[in-house]
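Kindly inspect this one:
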Amino acid sequence: MALLIILGGASLPGLSTLDNALLNLVLEAKSPATGAIHAVSPDQPVGQVLDQHGIVTPGWSWLALDGLLVAGALFLTVAMPSLGTVLTSLTVALGCAALVMAQALLAVYQNLWLPLGTVTLFLLAGLVIMLFWMQPYREIHLLRSNACQARLHLARNLLQQGQTDEARIALTDCPEHPEKLGLLYDIGIQQERKRQYDSAVHTFTRILTHSRQYRDVKDRLQTLAQLVSGAPVPVGGSFEATRTLVMPDQVVSKPTLGRYEIERELGRGAMGVVYLGKDPKIARTVAVKTLSYDQFETSRLEDLKERFFREAEAAGRLSHPDIVTVYDVGEEADLAFIAMDYADGKPLSAFGKPKSLLQVRVVLELIARVAEALDYAHGQKVIHRDIKPGNIIYNRQSDVLKITDFGIAKLADDSRTRTGSVMGSPLYMSPEQLKGQKVTGASDIYSLGVTLYKLISGETPYQGDTLANLTYQILNKRPKSIREYCPDLPDSVVRLINKSLQREPSKRFASASAMAEALRRAAARESTREVS
């Protein structure tokens, strides 16, 4: 409308009506009281009337007129939707009055004529048009606002459920404002913790397109770009047992597995890495053991998951002071994990070297506690299958002992046996376990006997330079007598060890509790011997 007036204002009918009326008033004000001046005729050129009365139209009048028209158009289309109808109507009314007053005063006192009536009519007509348009605009704006609020609420709920990608998609059509940017930032942080580094880069880049200085997004984006480009940190689904979740740069959030924040690495095994984690909801420190899917064949992956979760569930049913408690089990895109009680101490393997052996009485008492815990587990239909010094944690200061890795050994043994590999620790495996036969509680008794042998002598009953040689000895040879390493060892302890290492399961202790009783008696005799 403004452009139409600018391009063809002179030929548009009716636009000069207000100017002619105002010119008549000006001429009457400038004429004597006799009334010699007559009204301007619609057919009479305005320029001729102005010349007759010495009123001049300045050369810059067209520029002022066009500028006012453009300014009025911008005000009505841009400012009015945000100001509202009442404030806009008042502003337009005051503006029109100001234009009329300015036009009249310039003509009367300065003999300058500016055809501002055209601008005044434009503002009034534009106001009427905008008033009709504002009603549907308000409804549309309200619908958009409600839709945006609904999307923000949906995105917030999806983020709380851990669905970061869905939360980001829900924010797509929302206008950029602080609440949306805050949600996007939280989504990026969650993607960092879930090790979805590519997605986090995309989210933080989206924030920077709208706010170049938003919080610490630049620093995070720079660090993430380095990680994605080749840092030794798992990205997406490429976690390996030799890799770590621990972040080298503190700018990036600590990764999480499930609800557990990963603090640092505790150790590594054949299948994955064990981390020190923290449950932020209850401030509980846990050990998080991971099982990398990349270490197994794709064809076996579903069976692997099923066995892992079934065994983890079985371990979770155990509740014994000398068995590590399993709190949670979960699955990520590239690995499974078990969160268990963090046992602060050293594995008994640290006391299995000739120069760091514990007293025989102490060893007997510790193994008795392990046997009692195993008897409880066997009563719950759970067989450990990987008893060895490295899986028994002991804190000498607090005298706390914990058996770890329940259930994981069976999973590893079953899955790897099918591919021709041997999982676990062959030095501590029972003959029936090496032959792939049915494993019962007697197998744990055998492994515990080898553990006892190791902690007393610093050596194992069988030694071989190859796995085949070691397996042959365990299946066909008698174990080396512990007297070769400990000549002064009491006969009762020697008999106890020999009984637990019998090749036939039926010749070993009838149960782990029977072994525990024998160990207690031997420990009592050893204590008496030490005193005497």
